[in-house]
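Weekly structure sync, notes
Attendees: PL (lead), two postdocs, one rotation student
Agenda item 3: pending single-chain targets
PL asked that the sequence for the first pending target be pasted directly into the notes so everyone works from the same version. It is reproduced below exactly as submitted, 127 residues in total.
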Amino acid sequence: QVQLVESGGGLVQAGGPLRLSCAPSGRTFSYYAMGWFRQAPGKEREFVAAISWRGGVTEYADSVKGRFTISRDSAKNTMYLQMNSLKPEDTAVYYCAASFAGDSFYRLPHRYEYDHWGQGTQVTVSS
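Predicted structure, written out during the meeting:
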């Protein structure tokens, strides 16, 4: 098991920045690709961004391209989502997720391959 903990959510005005963090509980991110998802009330959970376990490959949803940046710091054992130019439609609970990658250093998981999830952190963007 890999238990993940998100932090950094809060209330921000439209156009502002916010950085989310994700860290495992009791273990490291070694051999795991990572991703961010979000879910607004009454809506399906949607993919936001992903990063391979060596950090060489990233993927973003069209709605956040150019505004969000996913990264990871192996020394700090932490994964980040830097969100800039936030919009009210970005309001959601954001979830950190992990997928075992093994020796696939730069592989990005399919959407169904995320097996471990954090509890979520609320991001609210006011207009």
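Discussion points:
- The chain has no helices and eleven strands.
- The mean pLDDT is 93.
Action: rotation student to compare against the earlier draft before next sync.
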